[in-house]
Amino acid sequence: MSRLRVAVIGVGHLGKEHARILVGLPDVELVGVADTNLDQAQAVAKRIGVKAFADYWPLLNLVDAATVVVPSSLHEDVAAEFLRRGLPVMVEKPLALTAAAASKLADLADSNGTILQVGHIERFNPAFEELQRRRIHPKYIRAERLGPFSGRAYDIGVVLDLMIHDIDLLLAMFAAPIESVEAFGVCIFGPHEDVANARLRFANGCIADLTASRAHPTPYRQMHLWGAEGYAGIDFAQQRLKLVQPSESVRAHGLDPSKLDPASRALIKDELFGRHLETCTVTGRGCDQLTCELQEFVKCVQSGAQPRVSGRAGQAAIAVAEQIIGSMKQHAWTESAAGPCGPAHAPSPVGLLFPPRVSQEVA
């Protein structure tokens, strides 16, 4: 079988990693990389031994597939050109800026009989993969995805930048529709929200609280799930899944301290985890998620199979993100109907939380 001819469109922070991985896959021929910043494209191309392009148009006639890693605001236009020609595309998340635009891309893939994959990389996290093998039906979920300001993805807010990951994971777990959305956020660095919180209520009775921030001092990516079967906690950075379930005795008889003698009651604190609540920690195999994601893209192109994260899945995540952003814009900060609403119009502070630091002149 001849090698799959692939191009990477956009070789910034993440795109250059696409190029690095693809050039090392045995069944791939990386034809070239394209970026409007030709110096960047040439630097990446020289490092991995491929050709650089200032525009993706020449590559349309040279490749069998492409990965699109340009700024989010350009996803729709660039991906559409490849899809119209029946060329498979993997587009980094979010698939587009709106659900309508994402739907158009998915329609293009369908009408031209080609593959459209979306780069929701956490689907390939070993801890999440392990969770999906477990029989847990959560009724409450808390997800937090926090990180420092990176200077990237300034064309979108934190909902489409970070929270979209957890939205996609929730939709992958639940077939139940969302009944209601309540959200609020705050703009810090520009016109888009940089901190956001949303509560989703699913028709199956599950409530999910999602928090995302790109104004946090340290990275933090975790999800916690509670259900009748027990608790599951994912540390995405460590690729670790922690599980807690009631012991057989607790499942059969419950655990009521009032029915225990004083000596047994005193032991509960020390014996809670182990005797009454069984624990298990599963650590991921240490895989590189981006490599797994790109390998699946290549495999799907070669076999014609549908990817784990299809264009329709990317569209569905954006549709929920739009609901969250819409609710956020309607959030009132005061009791007055005429008061400020939305992330860009948070009320002014009424005072300081601590005395300001006094500037010291340097001699």
Features:
363 residues, 10 helices, 14 strands, six-stranded parallel sheet, alpha/beta, 2 domains, Dihydrodipicolinate Reductase, domain 2
In words, what does this structure look like?
With 363 residues, the chain is α/β, with parallel strands linked by helices. It folds into 2 domains: 4-121 and 289-308, 3-Layer(aba) Sandwich (Rossmann fold); 123-283, Dihydrodipicolinate Reductase, domain 2, CATH 3.30.360. The protein has 10 helices and 14 strands. The chain has helices at residues 15-22, 38-48, 75-84, 99-111, 126-132, 158-173, 248-253, 262-276, 289-303, 311-330, and strands at 4-9, 28-34, 51-53, 65-68, 89-92, 116-119, 138-146, 178-187, 193-202, 207-213, 220-227, 230-235, 240-246, 277-283. Strands 8-9-10-7-11-12-13-14 form an 8-stranded mixed beta sheet. Strands 3-2-1-4-5-6 form a 6-stranded parallel beta sheet, with helices on both faces. Strand 11 (220-227) and strand 12 (230-235) form a beta hairpin. The longest helix is centred in the last third of the chain and has 20 residues, at 311-330. The N and C termini lie far apart (71 Å). The model has no long low-confidence stretch (mean pLDDT 93).
